[in-house]
Amino acid sequence: QVQLVESGGGLVQAGGSLRLSCAASGSSFSVNVMGWYRQAPGKQRDLVATITRGGSTKYTDSVKGRFTISRDNAKNTVYLQMNSLKPEDTAVYYCNANGVSYSYFEVWGQGTLVTVSS
Questions:
Q1: In 66-93, which positions are buried (b, 16+ CB within 10 angstroms) versus exposed (e)?
Q2: Per-residue model confidence as pLDDT tens digits over 8-66
Q3: Residue 71's closest CA among 36, 47, 100, 39?
Q4: Phi, psi angle pair for 89, to nearest 5°
């Protein structure tokens, strides 16, 4: 069973930076796509960024040029560097991963709260 553990959320002033981390653990698994999603209060969960095992990335338009997703395949860990944060970035950020263990899997992290004050 693959599990994700996130860290790095917190409170930051507008214009500041935070770095989120998410590590996958389990046995006999290979992670394909890892990504970050976020859910603001009263809103649906939306894609922020994804990265494939080969390093191809996608970003939602609102974070392009400010956020950078990266991963360390050896550690099965994905990172989200968030710069120039805005109050509208305030949300619970969830890590997501899919791949193959004994069969296909898709898992979510527990979420980490990011609060950006104005």
A1: ebbbebeeeebbbbbebeebeeebbbbb
A2: 999 999 999 999 999 999 988 899 999 999 999 999 999 999 999 999 999 999 999 99
A3: 36
A4: -85, -5
